[in-house]
Amino acid sequence: MIFGRSERRKTPVEPVTLKILVAGGFGVGKTTLVGAVSEIRPLRTEEVLTEAGRPVDDIAGVERKSTTTVAMDFGRITLRDDLVLYVFGTPGQDRFWFLWDELATGALGAVVLADTRRLEDCFAAVDYFERRSIPFIVGVNCFDGAARHPADAVRQALDLDPDVPVVLCDARDKESVKDVLIAVVGHAAEAAEHRQPAAT
Ligand SMILES: Nc1nc2c(ncn2[C@@H]2O[C@H](COP(=O)(O)OP(=O)(O)OP(=O)(O)O)[C@@H](O)[C@H]2O)c(=O)[nH]1
Ligand SMILES: [Mg+2]
């Protein structure tokens, strides 16, 4: 009885929901990342890569890849009782750029996933968020067999502002991806503080 009464008096906390984008080049692990962390079955829009698409779909470096995202990935993760993230993975190929503006609307921040073997593939995503002043962090997806580069080397190669966090991660690992998402939320919160200094 006591249990029931105290439960009833508790007002449930409505969680704050935030939208985070996951961007980056073709086959860098965006769909994998969303799938690793989502507590709901992630929505995927994968299509099979075909022989006909070979001239446009550059699978160099990801030869074992058989599908590609054509619209978006969507997943949800509860970081705290009062904080839920909706995570949207973008399609990686250039021919789907027209979808980005739609996906970016209302986003609090973004993760640009990078593969150090094909770092140039994420230049476009970095540019996109810089131009729109959307706070972003860079997540270096440490593929097996890829040389490990320290975060600072990646920062230099991408010519990032000093305040942009660079974190090493494994897109297949839930805890690792969680750390990435916590970093982007923290970075976006800091960026917001700088933009709107507290009224005096
Ligand atoms: N070894 C290793 N393989 C990975 C990792 N992340 C992803 N992969 C593999 O790399 C391939 C590409 O992963 P996806 O998650 O489909 O990549 P994506 O960025 O969503 O690709 P697009 O949507 O086509 O741009 C898949 O075969 C994954 O299993 C990783 O951290 N390590
Ligand atoms: Mg994908």
Q: What can you tell me about this protein's structure?
A:
The chain has six helices and eight strands, in the order H-E-H-E-E-E-E-H-E-H-E-H-E-H. With about 200 residues, the protein is α/β, with parallel strands linked by helices. The chain has a single domain, classed as Rossmann fold, CATH 3.40.50.300. The strands form two sheets. The protein has a six-stranded mixed beta sheet with strand order 4-5-1-6-7-8, sandwiched between helices. Strands 2-3 form a two-stranded antiparallel ribbon. Helix 2 (about 30-35) crosses helix 6. The structure holds guanosine-5'-triphosphate (GTP) and magnesium ion. Keywords: GTP-binding, Hydrolase, Nucleotide-binding. Pfam families: ATP_bind_1. It comes from Streptomyces endophyticus.
Task: Sum up the structure in keywords.
200 residues, Rossmann fold, single chain, binds magnesium ion, alpha/beta, binds guanosine-5'-triphosphate
Average pLDDT works out at 89
Q: Tell me the helix content.
A: 25-40%
Termini separation: 49 Å
Structural class comes to alpha/beta
Tell me the fraction of residues in β-strands, as a range. 15-25%
Which geometry do the CA atoms define? globular
Return the CATH class: Alpha Beta
The structural domain count equals 1
Main sheet overview: 6 strands, mixed
Order of helices and strands: HEHEEEEHEHEHEH
Rg over alpha carbons: 18 Å
Low-confidence stretches: none
* Second CATH tier, the architecture: 3-Layer(aba) Sandwich
Unique bound compounds: guanosine-5'-triphosphate, magnesium ion
Order the strands across the largest sheet as they lie in space: 4-5-1-6-7-8
Number of helices: 6
The CATH topology comes to Rossmann fold
What's the β-strand tally?
8
**By CATH's scheme, which homologous superfamily applies?**
P-loop containing nucleotide triphosphate hydrolases
Family: Belongs to the GPN-loop GTPase family.
Keywords: GTP-binding, Hydrolase, Nucleotide-binding
InterPro entries: Gliding_Motility_GTPase, Gpn, P-loop_NTPase
Pfam families: ATP_bind_1 (PF03029)
